[in-house]
Design goal:
By secondary structure, this protein is of the alpha/beta class. The chain has helices spanning 23-31, 48-53, 63-75, 88-99, 121-131, 145-151, 158-167, 175-182, 215-223, 249-262, and strands at 8-12, 35-39, 82-86, 104-108, 140-141, 172-173, 202-207, 231-236.
Length: 265
């Protein structure tokens, strides 16, 4: 008698976030019949408080090191998972899906893959506080409230933005930002195997009001993919980069769930 494969979803956080930021999503998907796990980046502490109090281990981590660390965790799972990632986690989702270690992917407001050269002013402004100082490249950097408000929480009321800021951000390695910013000219760490016709389906999303990863990043990434494999794009109206955390998170989770079910997962 054939057995039904287990549905496992592995969540990948982005810069300035901790894996526990996915807890509401994990509960939601588990209520809908999936098994879930939140993957860690190298240097992550067990808690947000610990990551804030000692950010040194987080610093000086590049995209390839992070992707390799995630892949080791994925290969320790009992089956190939579905990947859901946000921001740089969305870029890493695409890298890992291209490596063939997952069955499907959802990249939510992802950082740009290599070959996406568009750089809207909002994205430049959101990152300039870090990229403007080349000495940051080896460090773990924190966001001020104003930086978080502009980059993440520009589409929610200020009170909610302050609550999100108090609860979620941790220091993050600056190196991936530098690697993404320079990918058009040098380096290949943000390169995705967009021609892998054996990979699973991919959903890329954008938030209409996202400043740090504006919709053009996802749209331009979509255009790079081999059209023989399911690769789709969806844009959420009036949503910023905090869309997986703020009071409207369930809209994004429900769309992701419906899309996965529509693809047979």
């Amino acid at each position: 008698m054939a057995t039904t494969p287990t549905k496992t979803i592995a969540f990948i956080h982005g810069l300035w976030m901790h894996r526990t930021s996915w807890q509401a999503w994990m509960d939601f998907f588990e209520q809908n019949g999936y098994k879930t796990v939140a993957l860690s980046w190298p240097g992550d502490s067990d808690t947000i408080a610990a990551s804030r109090s000692n950010p040194t281990p987080i610093g000086n981590r590049g995209v390839k090191e992070i992707a390799d660390h995630l892949e080791q965790q994925i290969k320790a799972l009992p089956e190939k998972p579905i990947l859901i990632g946000h921001s740089f986690g969305g870029l890493l989702t695409q890298i890992l899906l291209g490596r063939g270690v997952a069955v499907a992917g959802v990249a939510i407001d992802p950082a740009p893959i290599k070959g996406v050269w568009q750089l809207p002013f909002s994205a430049l402004r959101a990152s300039f506080g870090i990229l403007g100082n080349p000495f940051n490249i080896n460090k773990a950097v924190s966001l001020s409230f104003d930086q978080f408000r502009f980059g993440f929480a520009n589409a929610v009321p200020e009170q909610e933005a302050r609550e999100l800021y108090e609860k979620w951000p941790i220091p993050a390695p600056a190196r991936p930002l530098f690697q993404a910013a320079m990918a058009t000219f040098i380096g290949s760490e943000t390169k995705v195997n967009t021609n892998n016709t054996m990979r699973g389906p991919l959903l890329i999303t954008g938030g209409e009001k996202d400043h740090i990863a504006p919709p053009i990043f996802g749209q331009a990434s979509l255009a790079k993919y081999n059209k023989s494999v399911v690769t789709e794009y969806h844009e959420f109206e009036n949503r910023g980069h905090s869309l997986i955390l703020d009071s409207g998170w369930k809209e994004v989770a429900q769309y992701s769930l419906d899309w996965l079910k529509g693809k047979g997962f």
